[in-house]
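Backbones bend. Our protein:
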Amino acid sequence: MSDEWALATRLVHEGGMRSQFGETSEAMFLTQGFVYDSAEEAAARFAGEAEGYVYSRYGNPTVTMFERRMAALEGAEACRGTTSGMAAVTAALTAALKAGDHIVAAGALFGGCRYIVETYLPRFGVESTLVDGEDLSAWEAAVKPNTKAFFMESPTNPTLALVDIAGVAAIRDAKAPEAKVVVDNVFATPLWQSPLKLGADIVVYSATKHIDGQGRCLGGAILGRDAWIKDNLDIILRQTGPSLSPFNAWVLLKSLETLPLRIRTQTATAGVLADALATHKMVKRVIYPGRDDHPQAELAKRQMAAGSTLLAFSVDGGREEAFRVANALELVKLSNNLGDAKSLLTHPATTTHKNLAPEARAALGIDDGLLRLSVGLEDPGDLVADLTRALDQAAGRTPMRQAGE
């Protein structure tokens, strides 16, 4: 594969392996195991002395094609696919840590990720500290002699706050050089942010989101240096079993061909919607990294190539009015997923972040009126009209449609 080809070209061609039939579309190898020409060959493969596959939990040709294409997209030396985004987070942190180690993480995390840091890892002797991810001094103050990992989302879910990835990497270099900086890059997408170039060691994705992009299957990805993956991650994946299925790998592989087209369109539409929402009297605040009024607009311009496909906005009236807006929508669907071709809206306080205590949600800026919008591929004008109509109905200007009508 030519290193001179542009990203869009590489996402169509990178990693492909044709069978003896010379197929155009990449093949789907739905197989659990593999056959050897001889007992000697089987022994050599298991010993790592010969190339080839031994079992689909360890590796599969279709999964390999997905991993190679993801590595090309991220600019990483290597990638490993997993069953889901949470599997990717758990495996990456487990591979980076052991009993007696310490992890520093931003407090603004998806509920499942926060559980891994706060509850799951400490069960096995890993100490954890949550900090205000926006405050570099808090990261620095939390470092201990046994700190071996830093973990963050940027932008965060659901308030799209940013963590200065390069700043955290500099703290790692100065105070904990053996520690790994792990970044969940889902909200930024690999198109708009490159954590490895900013100093991160490991990048994780829920491929269920933008990488699939059409709400069809689960998947995850872990990317980083080839040596770290082979020496630390592979044994975790092989022995604990969160392997990506060949079918899901094939779906994700084909979706990567259109990822730039989808993300660019969704991001442009998100900017239009953020501007439109900011003018509505029912909306108290709009949070979007592509706007100059984002609290960290300067960092967003420095760290991201463009705004996200997601935005958040708070409406007057708290939960009751937020529910009225959600129930009045006709085009935008209610779902806790994101990155889909369909625009999706959720109320984080009662869905994705419901398990956080009220004071924890308040500290993260998740008020009861906050709504998170994942922007799809619909016509921008139709989406503006749908959201405006829902806000107008919630404001009492027109009769409100009841949920289910």
Q: What stands out?
A: Residues 259-394 form a domain with the Aspartate Aminotransferase, domain 1 fold (CATH 3.90.1150.10).
